[in-house]
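Per your request, structure below.
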């Protein structure tokens, strides 16, 4: 005799309705990453890939319809400044259930909207770490809203710019594994800076080159303070099932006081204050026959971010350029860690990670529609 398990009436009522139309994209942020995202969408469409159409694009100054996204992007990039960032565009622009918001901003205001959209069945794909990598309450609200709204929060671009690290951690946990620790070079920008820091150019000049090449955060102090690595550690730890708060991660900042205190338009000049302390760190590393790396870790011994001297041949000192290098120790991988290495910064790989998430969501929607 078979048993029929009846769902309580409430859970049937709570099941989110399915979208009735094909997903559209709404892009927030037309800077380094947002522009690369539009270019990649355009390139893949020309190769016949079914990329959802843009409904609209926006930056902090203006909103434009998305029929011709590259032209809209050009107009938005030239838009006049506003007194204050735009208010919630989404409300005005009529997002519908099943649409996909792409957050290519570094805005706390935008990050605060993710759970609201998800609850309404609007998917969110993000490069912005202030969503799941800031307050634990916000990260948990995002998880709950995605579940209750039947929407996806695509965050592949937030850690390792799409390297298969975050998804490996999630897959291990889903398979019953326990993550014991994660340790590694998680900032592609800092990896690039220290790979090029050989004393031939002042450290400040390297920071300017990295910033102008779109490798750093819009404000490079977010990288140099260790804050960017802290956010990535929080995202990874939460994905591993550890509900860490920002204060649980001890962070060694590389910022001298003059750079901490600098107002927005004085940051560039204040970068020079990095040169003497970074030269001293380089000399100490050379004296110890080691190299400098900013390493972040969490595990049973706590969580921290620090500039470390690693001896030649150390596994975390391998690679080059913007490479992230991360070791995951778990019950399954207890003798030797799972190791992920590859380019972890830059507009191209970040935009590709955003589009991976978009296509996975749109592919899922198409599958559901044909079922
Ligand atoms: N670059 C990388 O390698 C990399 C890698 C991984 C993740 N990320 C992340 O990607 C995000 C974007 O980085 P980026 O380098 O592209 O920054 P960016 O060049 O400074 O661009 C940021 C964009 O966000 C827009 N914006 C700010 N507030 C907004 C608001 N309230 N509404 C709508 N748009 C708003 C800005 O508008 P305006 O143009 O009007 O100022 C700008 O277009 C960041 O969260 C960063 O952490 C970057």
């Amino acid at each position: 005799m078979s048993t029929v398990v009846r769902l309580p009436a409430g859970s049937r009522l709570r099941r989110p309705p399915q979208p009735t139309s094909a997903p559209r994209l709404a892009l927030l942020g037309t800077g380094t990453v947002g522009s690369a995202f539009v270019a990649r969408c355009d390139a893949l469409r020309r190769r016949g890939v079914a990329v959802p159409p843009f409904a609209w694009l926006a930056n902090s100054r203006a909103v434009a319809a998305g029929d011709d996204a590259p032209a809209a992007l050009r107009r938005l990039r030239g838009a006049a400044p506003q007194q204050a960032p735009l208010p919630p565009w989404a409300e005005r622009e009529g997002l519908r259930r099943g649409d996909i918001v792409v957050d290519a901003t570094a805005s706390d205001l935008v990050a605060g909207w993710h759970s609201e959209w998800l609850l309404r069945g609007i998917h969110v794909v993000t490069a912005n770490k202030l969503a799941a990598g800031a307050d634990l309450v916000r990260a948990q609200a995002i998880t709950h809203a995605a579940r209750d709204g039947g929407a996806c929060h695509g965050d592949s671009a937030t850690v390792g710019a799409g390297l298969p690290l975050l998804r490996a951690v999630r897959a291990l946990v889903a398979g019953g594994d326990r993550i014991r620790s994660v340790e590694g070079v998680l900032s592609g920008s800092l990896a690039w800076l220290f790979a090029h820091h050989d004393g031939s150019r002042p450290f400040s000049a390297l920071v300017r080159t990295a910033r102008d090449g779109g490798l750093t955060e819009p404000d490079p102090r977010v990288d140099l303070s260790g804050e960017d690595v802290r956010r990535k550690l929080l995202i990874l730890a939460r994905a591993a099932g550890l509900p860490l708060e920002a204060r649980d991660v001890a962070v060694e900042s590389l910022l001298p006081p003059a750079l901490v205190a600098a107002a927005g338009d004085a940051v560039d000049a204040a970068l020079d204050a990095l040169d003497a302390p970074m030269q001293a760190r380089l000399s100490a590393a050379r004296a110890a026959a080691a190299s400098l790396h900013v390493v972040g870790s969490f595990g049973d011994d706590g969580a921290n971010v620090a500039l470390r001297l690693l001896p030649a041949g150390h596994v975390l000192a391998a690679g080059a350029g913007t490479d992230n290098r991360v070791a995951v120790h778990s019950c399954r991988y207890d003798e030797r860690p799972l190791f992920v290495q590859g380019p972890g910064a830059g507009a191209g790989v970040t935009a590709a990670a955003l589009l991976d998430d978009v296509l996975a969501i749109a592919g899922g929607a198409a599958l559901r529609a044909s079922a």
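Residues 347-370 form the longest helix (24 residues).

Regards,
D.
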